[in-house]
Design brief:
Length: 108
């Protein structure tokens, strides 16, 4: 990763998350995302709140431009539903192109 404001923000969130225990709902975040070669090894996982999880994926998307992170950020931040995220991820995997709301099937 590059040394810029996104990287610093990303790793500050990771550092803070590793220093505390979350009471209540939490999610596991891959520090190095699986789509970038990361593993499920405990050293690559951190416990975060859903807001932190969304922000981490937003930071990755803004820095590296991976569509998988944009989809994760949009879903985690409530901009799209899980089913919309699944459709977008499948289309992205199958075409390698960016998928936008206009690409989603009409829900009516």
């Amino acid at each position: 990763m590059l040394d810029n404001k996104y990287t610093k923000t990303y790793f500050n969130i990771i550092y803070r998350a590793r220093q505390r225990k979350i009471d209540g709902y939490f999610e596991k975040h891959h520090i190095i995302p699986k789509h970038m070669g990361g593993s499920n090894d405990p050293s690559n996982l951190v416990t975060v709140t859903i807001q932190e999880h969304a922000n981490l994926h937003k930071q990755l998307w803004e820095e590296l431009g991976n569509e998988e992170d944009r989809i994760a950020w949009m879903c985690l931040s409530g901009q799209i539903s899980n089913s919309e995220a699944t459709i977008m991820a499948i289309k992205n995997a199958n075409t390698g192109r960016k998928v936008f709301f206009s690409d989603l099937p009409d829900a009516s």
